[in-house]
Design goal:
This protein is α/β, with parallel strands linked by helices. The protein has a domain of about 290 residues: TIM Barrel (Alpha-Beta Barrel), CATH 3.20.20. The chain is built from 13 helices and 13 strands. The strands form three sheets. An eight-stranded parallel beta sheet has the order 3-11-10-8-7-6-5-4. The longest helix has 17 residues. It is globular. The two termini are about 30 Å apart.
C-alpha cells in the first residue's frame, strides 16, 4: 500500500516531499509553521496578508500607529479614498518578514509566500506590485498567487531579476480560471511552476459561489490534468481542500497530482498563529457549525465556524489604521453595511451588522474563525484532557502523519 512518502514533488531541479502547508493569514501560517515544513522536506507558506500589522507585532515597527495618526481626522468620515498606504512601509514590512523567515530556514524544503489579489489596499495594482517584488527581493523561494485571477500579476514581476528563477504558482478552482491565466500570461513566455487546484471544501475564501456543494475537487483536478496533458504542458498540479488524511493525499498523488496542499489540521499545531484558546474552539466545533456565508467584503463566499465572534459584530470601520480591503475608490462593502445599520438605529449604543464583517479588524484579532470543511474532525486527531480541553499537536507530528500514514488511519500523539 502506497503512502505519501513514496512520491516526490519536482519543481525545477529540486525535489521535495509532496506536502504543502497552505498560506493562512493573518499570520496564522506563521514563519515557525513554514520553517517546520521546510525542515521536514516539504513546502511551507507564510501569508503576506496585512504584513504591516504583522511586522508591528513581530518586529516592533510602528506602521499601523503611524498610518492611523496620519489619517485620524478622517475616522468619522465615510469617504476613505484619501486613506493610502505608504508603499515604502509595505515594502519594508514585506522585506522584514520574508528575509527574517528565509534567514532562519533549515532543511531541504522550501518556503513560499501566499499573495492575495483581493488585498486591494486602496491602490490594487501598485500595492500588489510592491508586495510581489518585495517578496522576490527578500529571497522567498516561491510565490503562490491566491484570492483572485491574478491576470496581471506576472506582468508586475516581469522585470524582477528573480522572475524566472523563483517558483511562481497560481491557485484556481476551475479549468476556465486556469485557461484565462495561461492565456493572459502567454506573451511573457513564462509558465507557472505549479498549479494549486483548490476545491469547495477548503477553508477561508472560496473560488465558488454559494452553489459550492455541487462541485468536487477530484473532478476539477482531473479536468485540469487532462487539459495540461492535451496541451503538452508539464506543470505539477497540487490538490487542495478537504485532504484530511495521508490516504486522502495518496489518492490524489496516484491520480496524477504532483502534491497536495493541506491546512485545516495545522490550525491546531503549536506553531500555528491561532491562539490556543481559539484552537480549542476549532477542536470543539461540530459539523453543523461549518458555515459558508457571504459576510466577506471581498465578494467571495467564505467558510468559517458559525460561532465566530466576527459574525454579526458591529464594530466601527477602522480603515485609518488598517484598510486592507479598500478598493481603488476607497470603498469597502463593510463600510456600506455598517453605515446602513447606523442609519436604521441612529440612537443605538451598539449595533449588529450581519450582512458583512470588518475582516481587517477581526482577522487581526483572531475573531474571524475561518476553517476548512473537515474542521469538525480535528477532535479525532488528538487526546482530550480530563478538563475537557484538547491536546495541542506539533506541526512535525501532523506532517509526519500525512507523510507516512496508510489505510485512512490518523496517528494520535503521545499523550501528555
Amino acid at each position: 500500500m502506497k503512502r505519501v512518502d513514496d512520491f516526490r514533488l519536482r519543481l525545477g531541479k529540486q525535489e521535495v516531499v509532496p506536502i504543502m502547508i497552505g498560506g493562512m493569514g493573518v499570520d496564522i501560517s506563521t514563519a515557525e509553521l513554514a520553517l517546520e515544513a521546510a525542515r521536514l522536506g516539504g513546502i511551507g507558506h507564510i501569508s503576506d496578508a496585512m504584513l504591516p500589522t504583522v511586522s508591528d507585532r513581530r518586529y516592533k515597527t510602528k506602521f499601523v500607529s503611524e498610518k492611523q495618526k496620519q489619517y485620524k481626522l478622517n475616522i468619522e468620515i465615510t469617504d476613505k479614498s484619501i486613506v493610502q498606504f505608504d508603499l515604502a512601509q509595505v515594502a519594508e514590512s514585506t522585506r522584514l518578514h520574508v528575509s527574517r523567515t528565509m534567514e532562519a530556514k533549515r532543511g531541504e524544503g522550501m518556503i513560499f509566500v501566499n499573495c492575495m489579489e483581493k488585498l486591494t489596499m486602496n491602490s490594487p495594482r501598485e500595492t500588489l506590485r510592491v508586495r510581489l517584488n518585495g517578496a522576490l527581493d527578500a529571497g522567498i523561494d516561491g510565490i503562490t498567487l491566491s484570492a483572485g485571477l491574478h491576470l496581471g500579476s506576472f506582468e508586475l514581476m516581469k522585470d524582477n531579476a528573480r522572475f524566472r528563477d523563483a517558483k511562481l504558482g497560481i491557485i484556481v478552482s476551475s479549468l476556465r480560471a486556469l485557461q484565462l491565466f495561461l492565456r493572459k500570461t502567454a506573451k511573457l513566455n513564462r509558465l507557472p511552476d505549479f498549479i494549486v487546484v483548490e476545491g469547495p471544501l477548503a477553508g477561508g475564501h472560496l473560488g465558488f459561489g454559494m452553489d459550492w456543494a455541487e462541485y468536487d475537487l477530484l473532478t476539477i483536478t482531473k479536468e485540469v490534468l487532462a487539459y495540461l496533458q492535451a496541451e503538452h504542458l508539464s506543470i505539477p498540479v497540487i490538490a487542495a481542500g478537504g485532504i484530511f488524511t495521508g490516504t486522502d493525499a495518496t489518492n490524489f498523488l496516484e491520480a496524477g497530482c504532483g502534491g497536495v496542499q493541506v491546512a485545516t489540521r495545522f490550525t491546531v499545531a503549536k506553531e500555528c498563529g491561532i491562539p490556543e484558546k481559539v484552537q480549542q474552539e476549532y477542536y470543539k466545533a461540530t459539523e453543523d457549525q461549518m458555515e459558508v456565508n457571504n459576510t466577506s467584503p471581498t465578494g467571495y463566499p467564505m467558510r468559517m465556524i458559525s460561532t465566530s465572534p466576527s459574525i454579526g459584530a458591529g464594530i466601527r470601520p477602522n480603515c485609518e489604521a488598517y484598510g486592507y480591503l479598500l478598493d481603488a475608490n476607497g470603498r469597502c462593502a463593510y463600510i456600506d453595511a455598517y453605515n446602513a445599520e447606523v442609519a436604521l438605529h441612529p440612537d443605538a449604543k451598539k449595533i449588529s451588522v450581519k450582512e458583512k464583517t470588518c475582516l481587517c479588524t477581526h482577522m487581526r484579532n483572531y475573531d474571524c474563525w475561518t476553517c476548512g470543511h473537515y474542521t469538525y474532525r480535528l477532535k479525532d486527531t488528538t487526546h482530550r484532557h480530563a478538563d475537557g480541553t484538547y491536546q495541542i499537536l506539533s506541526a512535525e507530528h501532523i506532517f509526519r502523519d500525512y507523510q507516512f500514514s496508510t489505510d485512512n488511519q490518523i496517528a494520535l500523539p503521545a499523550k501528555i
